[in-house]
């Protein structure tokens, strides 16, 4: 899936003071500390930890309870409860293989300021005639409850299904089905985490729509028993879906106001 097209990036300011104010509310945004711009359609649901290094200008759609603890991410949609270990690379830029050149200068002539340096009076012509390369960094999608192990490489644009596990150092260049365990280079499905019938029940239940802290009546170490309990609780309406506060680039552009709003109510969406 390509990143939503826009020539405008939103300015953000994730200051040290803002990070300190949000941490008591379970929101850690150290990965955005050096980022000044994000795609304007980005959204971050809290509570969340984004410690991974975020590429400036990235599109981010990150669900609640994600723990993105390392590596580098760019143009990422991650469902709730995802975990990313150190050294992971998601969203590396692709280069055209069937153009005259693989160099970024062909579709991004302003790289390193070279267009202004080298084009001289032809600069307007160069900028007007650049060809877009929409596959430069398509959105990578992680379903809910995906765990990506240390040092894994995930090709841009790949979709990884709910509950999948990507083993340490694996190289993933193709879509991954739900609840699969992927290992190796190139990545291959070793097995499913659970029998097909259990996977079907998990996907139907969609427990990640709820706060796990409302589900502790279920024994998480006994999947089949837990499913039975949660199917009854969720089916009867005994637990309600969780809706965390959603941060947008507009929120992150005003750190003082955002910090103040979290002091008033750290969990629920303002307004």
Task: Please describe what this structure looks like.
With 271 residues, the protein is of the alpha/beta class. 21% of the residues lie in helices and 19% in strands. The chain contains 7 helices and 21 strands. It has an 8-stranded mixed sheet, with no helix packed on it. The longest helix has 14 residues. It is globular, with a radius of gyration of 21 Å. The two termini are 32 Å apart. The mean pLDDT is 93.
Whole-number average pLDDT?
93
Number of strands: 21
Count up the helices: 7
* DSSP strand content: 15-25%
User: What is the first-to-last residue Cα distance?
Assistant: 32 Å
**What is the overall shape?**
globular
Specify the structural class: alpha/beta
State the share of residues found in helices, binned by percent.
10-25%
Oligomeric state of the chains present here: single chain
Placed side by side, the strands forming the largest sheet appear as 2-5-8-11-14-17-19-20
Query: In this structure, how is the largest beta sheet organized?
Result: 8 strands, mixed
Low-confidence stretches: none
Order of helices and strands: EHEEEEEEEEEEEHHEEEEEEEEHHEHH
Radius of gyration: 21 Å
Q: How does the SSE layout of this entry go?
A:
Blueprint: E1 10-11, H1 16-22, E2 27-28, E3 37-38, E4 43-45, E5 48-50, E6 53-54, E7 60-62, E8 67-68, E9 72-73, E10 76-78, E11 83-84, E12 89-90, H2 114-118, H3 123-128, E13 140-142, E14 147-148, E15 153-154, E16 159-160, E17 165-166, E18 171-172, E19 180-183, E20 188-192, H4 196-205, H5 223-236, E21 246-247, H6 249-252, H7 255-264
Parallel strand pairs: 2-5, 4-7, 5-8, 6-9, 7-10, 8-11, 9-12, 10-13, 11-14, 12-15, 13-16, 14-17, 15-18, 17-19
Antiparallel strand pairs: 1-3, 4-21, 19-20
Helix pairs in contact: 1-7, 4-5
